[in-house]
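Lecture 7 notes: from sequence to structure.
We start with the chain below.
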Amino acid sequence: MTPQPPGLTTPLRFGANYVPSSGWFYSWLDFSADAARRDFADLAGIGLDHVRVFPIWPWIQPNRTLIRQRGIDDLLALIDVAAEFDLDVSVDLLQGHLSSFDFLPSWVLTWHRRSLFTDAAVRDGIVAYVDRLTRAVATRGNVFAVTLGNEVNNLWPSNATTPEASSAWAAELVEVARKAAPHLLSLHSLYDGSWYEPDHPFHPADNVGIGDLTTVHSWVFNGVSGIDGPLGPATVTHADYLVELAAATSADPARPVWLQEVGAPRPDIGEQDAPAFVRGMLDAVTANPALYGVTWWCSHDLDRGLADFPDREYDLGLFTVDHAIKPATRELAAVVAEQRANRTAPASRPALVCDVDLRTQPERRGEVAPGSPFHREWVRLRQAGPLAIVGAAHAADPTYLLARGIGSVLTPPGDLVCD
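Predicted C-alpha cells for the same chain:
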C-alpha cells in the first residue's frame, strides 16, 4: 500500500530499535521469549508503540538454497511477544550491518566472494529470502513494515557496486516485498553518506524514490557535534535538518519521512547533557509536518562484557542491561505523552531555498553536508522557529508550497547560495 502522510493532528509513532538486553543480537542463537518479554515491558512502560527488530541474515539463510524454518519461527515468536505488550513491529530483513559489525553468509565470502549488489546468483538467493521472510511476518497482525536491511550502504565497499546497480538492487527487492505482502510498508534504509558524500554509490534519489516512505538516520557523530557542541543548535536540529532535506528532495510533497534511527551517542552527547538533547531534538523534529515517526536507537545498553564494539555502542540504550531507566529516557517518555495528548497543527513555516537538486545532482551533496555554508545558514535561521528547505525549482510553485506547509521563501545571501 501507499501510506498516507500523517495528518497534522495525527499522533506520531514513537518506538525503539530493539537491542536485546541479554546477549545483544547473539541472543538469536538461543532465543528466549521470556527475556524478550522483560525487554518489551520496559518499552511499553514508557508509552512506545512499536519496535524495529533485526533477524540475523546468515543464521536464517546459511546456504543460498537453505532458509531455516527454526530461524523464522524464532522471529515470529518475538513478534508475538511484542503483541502481548501492544507493540507493533517493523522487521529489517538483511542484517547485514549492525553496530559496526557485518553479518554476511559464507556463500558470499571466502573463495565464493561476490557482491550482494551485482552478482546474479546472490541476488536470486536474496530474492528468495526476502520473499519467504516477508510472507512469514505478514501473517502477524502487529507487523506494519519491512525494511530491506539496516543501512545496507554500510556493506559497500566490501561489496562492489555502482549507483545504477545499487538502485536496481533496492528497487527489485522492494517490489519482491510488496508482492509478498501488499498491506505492509516496504522500505529502504541507508545511513547518511547517501545524503552528504559526493561520491557515495547510493544516491538521495533512492532514499526518496524507493519504498513507501523515506527513512533517515540522524547521528551527530558525523561531524555535526563538532560544529557547536552537544547542545548547540546545529547538533540539536540535525534530525530536523535531515527530515527537511528528505522532504525537499522527494518529488512527492506529501511523502512522509520516518526518523528511523536517532540516539544520544557518547562522547558527542555526554550523560549529563542527554536529557536536554533529547528534549531539544524532539521539540524541533516533532514540529515537522513531514515526520511519520521517531524510533530511538536503541532499546537497551550493550553489556560491556562483550568485546570489540566501538565504545559509543555500549551506552545507547533507553534502559541499562539491568532494566534501569535513564534520565534521558524519562525525557523521551514525557515528549511521547505530550505528543499523544496534543499534537497540534504547526503554523505555516518559511523555507530556505537551495539550488542543489539532490535527486539529479548527487555530486553536489557536499554543498548541503553538515558544516557547509548552506547548512550553517539553515541552522542560524532555524533558531527563530521551524524552517523548511525548498528546492529552487519549487520555490515559486504555490500548490507545492501549500502541500509542504510553507508560507514564504527565503533566499540565502549571495555568498551562501548552493552553487
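Points to note: The domain at 13-341 is CATH 3.20.20.80 (TIM Barrel). Residues 1-9 have pLDDT under 50 and may be disordered.
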